[in-house]
Design a protein that fits this description.
- The chain has helices spanning 19-27, 60-64, 162-173, 194-203, 207-212, 214-217, 227-241, 247-258, 264-274, 280-289, 295-303, 309-328; strands at 2-4, 50-56, 68-76, 79-86, 89-96, 106-108, 126-130, 133-136, 139-147.
- By secondary structure, it is α/β, with parallel strands linked by helices.
- The protein folds into two domains: 2-147, no CATH class; 162-328, no CATH class.
- It has an eight-stranded mixed β-barrel with strand order 2-6-5-4-3-7-8-9.
- This is DUF2877 domain-containing protein.
Length: 331
């Protein structure tokens, strides 16, 4: 099998898009990425044949391990998510079309959602995972290549381009807009809200206080990945990948809080974030911030992901950057 580095430009994507299908996926809480409109050749899939995909190394143990029974968590045109029981507890794996966000728990197909490569199956339907394959309905997916969802950065504590950080903040908050005015749908705003508490923790460089805000953010907001969870995933992954000394403790605290407080999908993504495994879109922004890739299009793509997911993740990353900067600054 080939190994595809997560920095590969095209990811084997077909640049087609269907607004109706993408809208359905976004309303279901599945992050999707807008693609240019082009004519698509649908192409038929023969039932029972194995469909190749690029699989995240974050799910390699599950995919290569013993065959386990699974069930469908959600099925939409852009993604099918399966939940599977493991000795460590429940886990989630996704089969994603090429125009869905490149999540660290996914097998990414080489076709977009408007080509209808995914089967429509009801929640709770049986599936199987393991032995190198994933089967749901008449769809069997196997890994033709692997990609690493942990971005390769120059050092364990990389230096970020100051102009790049300013560019990210400007795109997220808006030019001349105070950070205190930033709001996310589904999250309480104002001086007593959790985002204000998070900003206060950052000003004091207080990681413990930032972690305490997790009790207010976990599971907060609508969708399969609530906005509060997306913020925390961005903070957690940012601290891990930028080398904050308290990153492991913060990640363990967040993942511990997630049990029983949020969705299965979101809990799994938080666990991946604690290991530094992120979406391809988040990884592209981090690489741009260290000068390894074009930053402006990476930011635009991340912010356009899902209804709130991309902006929430970017807010989390900005929070992590501030915490790392204030921790390392001489006092």
């Amino acid at each position: 099998m080939r190994t595809i580095d997560e920095s590969t430009g095209g990811h084997g994507r077909d640049t087609t898009h269907d607004d109706t299908h993408t809208g359905q996926a976004a309303r279901a809480g599945v992050p999707t990425i807008p693609l240019p409109r082009e004519s698509a050749a649908a192409g038929a899939r023969t039932p029972g044949t194995s469909v190749p995909a690029q699989a995240s190394t974050g799910i390699a143990d599950l995919l290569r391990g013993p065959v386990r029974s699974a069930r469908v968590l959600l099925s939409v045109p852009a993604a099918v998510y399966l939940t599977v029981q493991t000795p460590q507890g429940p886990d989630v794996v996704g089969v994603l079309t090429s125009d869905a966000a490149r999540l660290p728990l996914g097998c990414v197909l080489f076709r977009p959602s408007n080509g209808r490569p995914l089967v429509s199956v009801p929640s709770g339907a049986p599936a199987r995972l393991g032995g190198g394959r994933l089967t749901v309905g008449d769809l069997t997916v196997s890994a033709a290549a692997w990609w690493d969802p942990r971005p390769k950065l120059p050092t364990a504590r990389p230096a970020l381009l100051p102009e790049g950080v300013r560019q990210l903040r400007s795109a997220l908050y808006g030019e001349g807009v105070p950070h205190s005015a930033f709001v996310l749908p589904g999250l309480p705003s104002g001086p007593s809200g959790p985002l204000a508490a998070l900003r206060g923790a950052v000003r004091r460089a207080d990681v413990d206080a930032a972690l305490r805000t997790a009790t207010r953010l976990i599971g907060l907001g609508p969708g399969l990945t609530p906005a509060g969870d997306d913020v925390l995933a961005g903070v957690t992954a940012g601290l891990v990948l930028l080398g904050h000394p308290a990153a492991e403790r913060f990640g363990a605290g967040v993942t511990g809080l997630a049990t029983g407080r949020t969705t299965e999908l979101s809990r799994t993504l938080l666990r991946h974030a604690a290991a530094g495994r992120v979406s391809g879109e988040f990884a592209a922004v981090l690489r741009g911030l260290v000068g390894h890739g074009a930053l402006a299009p990476a930011i635009a793509t991340l912010l356009a992901t899902g209804s709130t997911s991309g902006r929430a993740m970017a807010l989390g990353l900005c929070t992590a950057i501030d915490l790392v900067d204030r921790t390392s600054r001489p006092r």
